[in-house]
């Protein structure tokens, strides 16, 4: 999975250039989150029912886990 450092402050990013940069950063972050969910969903879908049971999941839980709602 990709790691994204969100602890940095955005000092000095004022005005139009800062807003444009923040917009592109939010778009990139959304794409990274979508891809992480996609990879997680595909990986969990590839497991057997027994393997899912071993980690305390069922097929119905895959979307919830992939979307990070649990």
Structure description:
The protein is mainly α. Helix content is 60%, strand content 0%. It has three helices and no strands. It has helices spanning 15-45, 49-54, 62-66. The protein is elongated, with a radius of gyration of 17 Å.
Give the overall silhouette.
elongated
Instruction: Give the SSE string.
Output: HHH
What Rg, in angstroms, do the CA atoms define? 17 Å
- Count of discrete alpha- or pi-helical segments spanning 4 or more residues: 3
Contiguous runs where pLDDT drops below 50 for at least 5 residues: none
Main sheet makeup? none
The assigned structural class equals mainly alpha
Quote the average pLDDT.
Answer: 87
| Estimated helix fraction | 55-70%
Distance between the termini: 18 Å
Quantity of strands, as a count: 0
Assembly context of the chains: single chain
Percent in strands? under 5%
Features:
70 residues, 3 helices, mainly alpha, single chain
How do the helices and strands line up, and which of them pair or pack?
Layout: H1 15-45, H2 49-54, H3 62-66
Brief rundown of the structure:
With 70 residues, this protein is an all-alpha fold.
């Amino acid at each position: 999975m990709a790691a994204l450092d969100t602890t940095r402050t955005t000092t000095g990013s004022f005005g139009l250039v800062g807003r444009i940069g923040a917009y592109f950063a939010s778009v990139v972050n959304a794409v990274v989150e979508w891809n992480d969910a996609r990879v997680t969903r595909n990986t969990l879908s590839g497991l057997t029912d027994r393997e899912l049971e071993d980690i305390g999941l069922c097929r119905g839980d895959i979307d919830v886990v992939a979307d990070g709602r649990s």
